Structures are given as C-alpha cells and as structure tokens.
C-alpha cells in the first residue's frame, strides 16, 4: 500500500490513470466499480463517494468523515482487511482505489453449501477474529461488522480468505476520550450504541456474536418487525437458542455466543478471549482437543452428554437451508449497503437529549438548592409573620389609643374654635364700645379744654382786679374755683374714671 499524506487527495482525474469497468455495488452515497490501472494492468475496486456540498445539506458524505476513513485505511496492512491503494478527488466525489475483493459475501458462499460443520464455521470466524484483533491492537473499532462487510478475496480456492471491508464508520479509540454515536445497522449494533452510551472496542465483539448466531442458525437473534422493536430487543438482550435452530449446535458454540452477547462490556469477551475460547481453538486435529473439551464440560455441568457424543462421533453438520433463506431475505428486503447512513438525525436527537438530561440534572440540583432556600425563607417568613402579628396587635392598640386621644383633641379643638368665635364677637363689641368711648372722650377733652381756657381767662381777669382793688385774696378764690370745677365735672362726666383723672390733672394745674 502506498503511503499517503494525511487527508491529502490527488486532484488529477482518476480516468487519466484508471479504466472504469462494471459496477460491483452501490449505496445511497457511494458506487463501487471495477477498474484497471493503466500503467500496470492490475485490477482494483474504485469506490466513488459523493461529497456533501454544504453543511446544511443532507446529500452526500461530509469530507471529514471521508478523511477519517482514508486515514484509518492508511494505517492498515493485514491479510484479512481490505487495503487502500490510492485516493483521488474531483469537484463532486472522492474516489478510493481499493484492493479488488471479488469472491462475494461469506454468507452467500456458505449458503451455497448443502451443509456446514462447526469446524468449517470456526475456520472462517478465526479469520474474522484475526482481522479484528489486528484492528483492536491499533485501537481501531470497525463499528459496522455485518455479513455484507465480510467478503471473500477469491471463492474459487479450497479455503477462501476473509476480507473485512467498509471502514466508513471506523473510529480510532483514544484513552480518556469519551465517544458516543448512533450508527451502524440496527440488527448488528451493540446495546451501548442503542442506549447512546460511551463506545469502544467491545461493540465489535457484540457484532461478531450476532454474526456467529446467524451463521450457525440462519436466524437473527434480535431482529424484530420494526427498527424500534429490534433496538428494544437489543437493549433488553432478548434472545434465546431456539431448539428448532440450535438442535445440532454444540454447547461450546452457544457458550461462545453467550459470552459475546453480554450487555456489560466489562464482562463481554475481548478479541483475545474470543481467540482463546475453546470453541475456536478446539479442532479434532488439535493435540489437546480432548482435554479442552473435558475442561469445558467440568466448568459447565449443565451440558448434556449428547453434546459429548456428538463431538466424539464427528463434527456437527448444520443445515444451510435457513442461512440461504436469510441471505435471500436480507438482499431482497434491506436497501443497498451504505455505511454512511448512520441515523444522523437520531444521533443529533440523542445528543440533544443528552444535553437536555445534563441540563435537567443541573436544574434538579438548582431546584434542590432553591427548595432549601425557599424552606429557609419560609422559616424566616413565619418568624417575621409572627413578629409582625405581635407588632401589628401592639400597633393596633396604640392606634386605638391615638384615635381616642385624637377624637378628644378634635372635640377640644371644636370647643376652642367656638370659644375663639365667642371671644372674637366679644372683642368686636368691646372694640365698638371702645371707639364710642374714645369719641366721647375726645368730645369731653375738647369741652374741658374750652372750659380750661375760659377758666384761665377768668383767673387772669380775677387776678387783675385783686391787685387793683384788694377786695378778695387769691387762696379763697382758688378754693372756690376748684369747688366749682369739681361740681361741673361731676355733672359732666359722672362716675367715669378718665374724667376723674382729668380732674386730678386740672387740680394740680391750679
């Protein structure tokens, strides 16, 4: 096999180097044709893979998936695995120039036989296991092992060589890197694929178990009426060794199948365990075959003696009628093989469900945290509510007292307003009277001033006569005048104090 640069495809026209021949097979996005290299005359198989033109498109295969298949094939060089010779690319296709595998499918070859012994079956299974062992030693999982992908290099030889083909779903398994996907052919996929769990090399071992079951019986262990029923049977590991199909099958063969069709990947046979299983290693020509058989019987007490008799009398001959019917039915009812049709939408849905599940887990955790917070808040609220009720009762009582005091103050305010109104009315009356008295006082003051001026004039005239004639003395005259004034004031002012005060002033005046 030529060494190719990773993900670098030749851009020349493939027709310039190879002559295309008949079509050998086709799928939804791939066509395989026989071709001949012009420079050497060697025949190959040209696999034309339609490229996806845009990310939004559902037509064709994504370039990264084609690159992954090419990169894996570049690492492989084994007698039981198809080899890659060259890679070309044009605007619409990537063309893989592969080793020509012209012997057809293994199951078609075996179905043409009248009968099949377990020893013959194990010879072919041993080749399959050798090829898978090589893959697994490189940490590569095929993920699409099924009868259509188990081919014969040339069927016209005594012991045809097995070739494992179609690495469109193969992945390199990296330690510590979780890988999940929904792909493969439903009839042959492992429970971890159906349940969208982490995937690894054990998925291939489950598929080998299904292939072995069909090879020995012509019946499919999990195939249902619909894809959903098939997946449900796989998830539940719902199968049995029907006596109608396995009446001539040895317990060693059944043990081999049971240990492969195990849901727990940790308990499932590894490729090394399968190669070392007594049924694979046990042949009549094996020098320790009798010892291996009795060792198996010792560890499986439920095995009937008839199996030992069968083994001692010669290899079990399995009728291939049902295997023939299975191959005819599978070719008629199953669409052409297409390794790239891998439940893309279902895978995306499962990824979304996984994201939703993780989101729901976070929501659940946050809900628990919120529930605790809510309970704490409720406890605080209840305490606060009790405190508020007590405070409300106390405040209510205080408000009642305030309302009572307010009503009393309001009544007093009304009384005061009435008193103010009465006082204002009294003041109006007093003011009116005051004005009247002031007017009277003004008049009296004018009259008094008039009388005083008269008296002054009179006194002046009397003083002049006394000096001239000497008839009366001044003191006697003053007394008489004062007496006369008092009488006059008494008549004029009555009992008013203001007039009395004015009289005192007049007396002092004299």
From TrEMBL:
<keyword id="KW-0418">Kinase</keyword>
<keyword id="KW-0597">Phosphoprotein</keyword>
<keyword id="KW-0053">Apoptosis</keyword>
<protein>
    <recommendedName>
        <fullName>non-specific serine/threonine protein kinase</fullName>
        <ecNumber>2.7.11.1</ecNumber>
    </recommendedName>
</protein>
<comment type="similarity">
    <text>Belongs to the protein kinase superfamily. CAMK Ser/Thr protein kinase family. DAP kinase subfamily.</text>
</comment>
<keyword id="KW-0175">Coiled coil</keyword>
<dbReference type="InterPro" id="IPR011009">
    <property type="entry name" value="Kinase-like_dom_sf"/>
</dbReference>
<dbReference type="GO" id="GO:0004674">
    <property type="term" value="F:protein serine/threonine kinase activity"/>
</dbReference>
<keyword id="KW-0723">Serine/threonine-protein kinase</keyword>
<dbReference type="GO" id="GO:0005524">
    <property type="term" value="F:ATP binding"/>
</dbReference>
<dbReference type="InterPro" id="IPR000719">
    <property type="entry name" value="Prot_kinase_dom"/>
</dbReference>
<feature type="domain" description="Protein kinase">
    <location>
        <begin position="18"/>
        <end position="280"/>
    </location>
</feature>
<feature type="binding site">
    <location>
        <position position="51"/>
    </location>
    <ligand>
        <name>ATP</name>
    </ligand>
</feature>
<dbReference type="InterPro" id="IPR008271">
    <property type="entry name" value="Ser/Thr_kinase_AS"/>
</dbReference>
<dbReference type="GO" id="GO:0035556">
    <property type="term" value="P:intracellular signal transduction"/>
</dbReference>
<dbReference type="GO" id="GO:0043065">
    <property type="term" value="P:positive regulation of apoptotic process"/>
</dbReference>
<keyword id="KW-0067">ATP-binding</keyword>
<feature type="coiled-coil region">
    <location>
        <begin position="360"/>
        <end position="465"/>
    </location>
</feature>
<dbReference type="InterPro" id="IPR017441">
    <property type="entry name" value="Protein_kinase_ATP_BS"/>
</dbReference>
<dbReference type="Pfam" id="PF00069">
    <property type="entry name" value="Pkinase"/>
</dbReference>
<dbReference type="GO" id="GO:0005634">
    <property type="term" value="C:nucleus"/>
</dbReference>
<dbReference type="GO" id="GO:0005737">
    <property type="term" value="C:cytoplasm"/>
</dbReference>
<keyword id="KW-0547">Nucleotide-binding</keyword>
<keyword id="KW-0808">Transferase</keyword>
<dbReference type="GO" id="GO:0006915">
    <property type="term" value="P:apoptotic process"/>
</dbReference>
């Amino acid at each position: 096999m030529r060494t190719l640069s990773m993900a670098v495809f030749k851009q020349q026209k493939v027709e310039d180097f190879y002559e295309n021949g008949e079509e050998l097979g086709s799928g939804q996005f791939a066509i395989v044709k026989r071709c001949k290299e012009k420079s050497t005359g060697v025949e190959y198989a040209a696999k034309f893979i339609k490229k996806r033109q845009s990310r939004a498109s559902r037509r064709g295969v994504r370039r990264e998936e084609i690159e992954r298949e090419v990169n894996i094939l570049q690492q492989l060089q084994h007698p039981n695995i198809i080899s890659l010779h060259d890679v070309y690319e044009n605007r619409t296709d990537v063309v893989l120039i592969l080793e020509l595998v012209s012997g057809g499918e293994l199951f078609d070859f075996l179905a043409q036989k009248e009968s099949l012994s377990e020893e013959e079956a194990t010879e072919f299974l041993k080749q399959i296991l050798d090829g898978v062992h090589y893959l697994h030693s490189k940490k590569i999982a095929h993920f699409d092992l099924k009868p259509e992908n188990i081919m014969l290099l040339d069927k016209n030889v005594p012991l045809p060589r097995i070739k494992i083909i179609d690495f469109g779903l193969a992945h390199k398994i990296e330690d510590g890197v979780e890988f999940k996907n929904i792909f493969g052919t439903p009839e042959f996929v492992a429970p971890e694929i159906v349940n969208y769990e982490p995937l690894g090399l054990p998925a291939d071992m489950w598929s080998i178990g299904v292939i072995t079951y069909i090879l020995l019986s012509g019946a499919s262990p999990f195939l249902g009426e619909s894809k959903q029923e098939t997946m449900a049977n796989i998830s539940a590991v719902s199968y049995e060794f029907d006596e109608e199909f396995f009446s001539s099958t040895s317990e060693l063969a059944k043990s081999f199948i049971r240990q492969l069709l195990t849901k727990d990947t940790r308990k499932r046979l590894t490729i090394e365990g399968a190669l070392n299983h007594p049924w694979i290693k046990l042949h009549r020509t094996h020098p320790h075959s009798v010892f291996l058989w009795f060792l198996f019987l010792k560890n499986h007490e439920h095995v009937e003696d008839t199996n030992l008799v069968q083994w001692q009398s010669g290899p079990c001959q399995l009728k291939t009628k049902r295997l023939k019917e299975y191959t005819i039915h599978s070719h008629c009812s199953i669409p052409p093989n297409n390794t790239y049709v891998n439940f893309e939408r279902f895978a995306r849905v499962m990824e979304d469900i996984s994201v939703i599940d993780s989101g729901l887990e976070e929501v659940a955790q946050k809900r628990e945290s919120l529930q605790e917070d809510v309970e704490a808040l409720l406890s605080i609220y209840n305490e606060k509510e009790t405190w508020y009720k007590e405070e409300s009762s106390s405040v209510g009582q205080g408000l009642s007292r305030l309302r009572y005091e307010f009503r009393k103050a309001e009544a007093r305010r009304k009384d005061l307003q009435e008193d103010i109104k009465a006082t204002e009315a009294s003041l109006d009356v007093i003011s009116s009277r005051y004005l009247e008295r002031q007017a009277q006082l003004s008049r009296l003051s004018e009259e008094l001033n008039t009388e005083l001026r008269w008296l002054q004039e009179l006194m002046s005239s009397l003083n002049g006569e006394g000096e001239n004639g000497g008839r009366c003395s001044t003191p006697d005259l003053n007394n008489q005048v004062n007496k006369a004034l008092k009488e006059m004031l008494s008549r004029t002012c009555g009992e008013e104090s203001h007039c009395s005060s004015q009289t005192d002033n007049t007396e002092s005046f004299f």
